[in-house]
Design a protein that fits this description.
Elements lengths: L12 H9 L5 H15 L6 E4 L1 H16 L11 E5 L27 H8 L3 E6 L11 E2 L3 E2 L1 E2 L2 E5 L5 H8 L5 E6 L5 H7 L2 E4 L19 E6 L2 H12 L13 E4 L9 H13 L5 E2 L4 H27 L5 H11 L3 H21 L5 E5 L12 E4 L2 E4 H4 L5 H4 L5 E5 L8 E5 L5 H13 L11
Parallel strand pairs: 2-3, 2-8, 11-12, 11-13
Antiparallel strand pairs: 1-3, 4-5, 6-7, 8-10, 9-10, 9-16, 13-17, 14-15, 16-17
C-alpha cells in the first residue's frame, strides 16, 4: 500500500502497527491512505463491495488517542483490514454475496473474529466480494460482479474468498479475513500468491458468520507476509494454548491423488520444497476420490437444508447457478448423506495414520496458475473441465480431516502457485516452523504487489 503523504505507509501489517505504536504514523493517515487506494485502484479488480469509511476513521482516531495517552493500542494498531461479506460488521447488513439478504436488519455487533482483530487495534475498513453464499471457487458473482486477479486481470482470483485475497494481493489492504469450507481460503491464496491459514476446525470462533456448511466452515486470515500471518493468527487465537513445533520437523509429501495433474512449474517447485527439508518421504491417503465426493455431498446437503425455506419463497432472487446446486443438495437422500458422513470419520482416522511418519504433510493447493476468465477451465486427467467446480481438487478432500492447513506462496516465475502444509489438530506452530524454513530458503514468498 502506498500514499503520496509523508511518512509513507509501510506495506506490511507489522510495519504499520510498529509505526503507529511508536507515534511515527497516525492511524487516521493509514486509514485515509487505504481508502484512497481502494477508491483509485479497485475498479480494476472489484475486490471491495463497501468501504466502511466513517466507522474506520472513528476507530483510527481512538487508536491515535491511545498512543497520545501513552496506552498500548494493540499488536495490530492502526492496521486496516478487509472482511469477507459474510462476517457481521456492526451497523452493516451482512449480504453473504447475495441480494437475497439485502433487506435484513443491520448487524448489532461485529462477528467474533472481526472483534478479535479490532481488540488488537486493527481497523475494519471494507467488505469484500465473494461467491454467492460462499458456494464456488471463482468469486464470479451474478449480483456484484467478478473479482479479477491482481497479477493478471484477465484471470480468476479464486474463491469463494476471492475479494479478500485480491484486496491483499493488490496492495489495497495488508490483511483480510476469509472463510474456508472446501478450499475458499486456500484456493484464492494460491492463485493470488498469498500467505493464509485455515486453522484447526473449531479453533477460531464462527459467531456472527453466515454459514455455508456449518460442520466444515472455518475462518482465517490472508496476508502478503509470513510475519503478518503470525501476528494476525496470534490476535485471532487470543494466545490460546500452543503446542510448540518439534525441534526436528519430519516432512513428507502427499502422493497419489495429490501428485496427479500437477503443472510442471508447480511440480518443480514442490521438488525444491522437499529438498529444503531434506526429505523424499511420500505418504498416501486412501480413497481420496471418495473423500472428495463425500465433502461435496455433505456440503451440498448442509447448504441445501439451510437455504430451502428461503428458496421456497425467493428462488428467483438467487444466482441461478447457486440456486440449482442448493436445490440439488436439499434433495439428496438421507442415506447418501449418512454414508458420506461415515466416510468422513474413516478418512479422518486414515489421516491420523499418515502422520505417524511426519509432522507436516506437503500437497499442492491447486493444479497450476489461475485460469482465464474467458476460458475458466483447468486440465484434469487430460480433459478440460470447469474451473469453478474443480479448483478445489486438492483442497476439498483434506477438508474432511478438520486439520490445520497453511497456504504457502511459492517463489516461481510467472503467475503465482501455492502449496498446502497440513499438521495434526492444534499443531499450527509446526506449520509456522515449516513455513519459516521455506521463507528463509527463499522458496516461499508472496507474489510482488502489482503496479
Amino acid at each position: 500500500m502506498s500514499h503520496d503523504a509523508t511518512p509513507a505507509v509501510p506495506d506490511t501489517a507489522h510495519g504499520i502497527a510498529s509505526a503507529v505504536r511508536a507515534g511515527r504514523l497516525k492511524a487516521t493517515a493509514v486509514v485515509g491512505a487505504a481508502i484512497s487506494e481502494i477508491s483509485l485502484r479497485d475498479r480494476a479488480y472489484n475486490s471491495v463491495t463497501r468501504i466502511l469509511g466513517p466507522r474506520a476513521i472513528g476507530l483510527a482516531e481512538q487508536v491515535d488517542r491511545k498512543v497520545a495517552a501513552g496506552e498500548d493500542p494493540g499488536p495490530l494498531a492502526g492496521v486496516p483490514f478487509g472482511i469477507k461479506d459474510l462476517f457481521d460488521c456492526e451497523g452493516e447488513t451482512t449480504t453473504a454475496g447475495s441480494t437475497v439478504l439485502r433487506e435484513s436488519a443491520p448487524a448489532p455487533r461485529d462477528a467474533a473474529i472481526v472483534e478479535r482483530l479490532r481488540l488488537a487495534g486493527a481497523i475494519p475498513l471494507a467488505t469484500t466480494n465473494m461467491d454467492e453464499f460462499a458456494y464456488g471457487f471463482a468469486t464470479d458473482n451474478a449480483h456484484y460482479g467478478i473479482t479479477r486477479n491482481p497479477h493478471d486481470t484477465t484471470r480468476l482470483a479464486g474463491g469463494s474468498s476471492g475479494g479478500s485475497a485480491a484486496a491483499v494481493a493488490a496492495g489495497l489492504l495488508p490483511l483480510s479475513l476469509g472463510t474456508d469450507t472446501n478450499g475458499s481460503i486456500r484456493v484464492p491464496a494460491s492463485l493470488c500468491g498469498l500467505w493464509a491459514i485455515r486453522p484447526t476446525q473449531g479453533r477460531l470462533p464462527k459467531a456472527g458468520t453466515y454459514p455455508f456448511a456449518a460442520s466444515f466452515d472455518t475462518v482465517g486470515p490472508f496476508t502478503r507476509d509470513l510475519a503478518d500471518l503470525k501476528v494476525a493468527f496470534d490476535a485471532l487465537d487470543m494466545h490460546g494454548n500452543r503446542e510448540p513445533a518439534p525441534p526436528e520437523l519430519r516432512v513428507a509429501r502427499l502422493g497419489g491423488w495429490f501428485a496427479e495433474n500437477v503443472s510442471d512449474k508447480l511440480e518443480s517447485a514442490i521438488g525444491d520444497v522437499m529438498a529444503a527439508f531434506g526429505s523424499n518421504e511420500i505418504v498416501e491417503l486412501p480413497e481420496v476420490a471418495r473423500a472428495r465426493a463425500a465433502a461435496f455431498l455433505i456440503t451440498a446437503a448442509e447448504g441445501g437444508a439451510l437455504h430451502l425455506p428461503r428458496l421456497r419463497a425467493h428462488a428467483s432472487a438467487y444466482d441461478p447457478a447457486t440456486r440449482d446446486r442448493l436445490l440439488a443438495g436439499a434433495l439428496l437422500p438421507a442415506r447418501t448423506v449418512y454414508q458420506a458422513q461415515r466416510l468422513r470419520r474413516w478418512f479422518r482416522e486414515q489421516a491420523y495414520v499418515a502422520f505417524a511418519r511426519a509432522d507436516v504433510l506437503v500437497a499442492p493447493a491447486v493444479v497450476g496458475e489461475a485460469p482465464r476468465i474467458d476460458q475458466p477451465l483447468i486440465e484434469i486427467d487430460g480433459q478440460m473441465v470447469s474451473a469453478r467446480a474443480n479448483l478445489g481438487l486438492y483442497t476439498q478432500p483434506l477438508t474432511l480431516t478438520g486439520f490445520p492447513i497453511m497456504s504457502v506462496p511459492l517463489k516461481t516465475p510467472g503467475l503465482p502457485v501455492g502449496l498446502q502444509l497440513m499438521a495434526l489438530p492444534g499443531k499450527e506452530e509446526a506449520l509456522f516452523a515449516a513455513a519459516e524454513v521455506l521463507a528463509k530458503a527463499g522458496l516461499a514468498v508472496a507474489a510482488s504487489v502489482p503496479g
